[in-house]
Amino acid sequence: MSGDELIVPKYNAQVRISGSVLFPTQIPYNRKYNLKDYISSAGGVSESGKKNKIYVVYANGKAATTHGFLFFKSYPTVKPGTEVIVPAKEEKKPFSTAEFIGIASALASLAGVVIAILRN
Question: What is the reported pTM?
Answer without folding.
Answer: 0.65
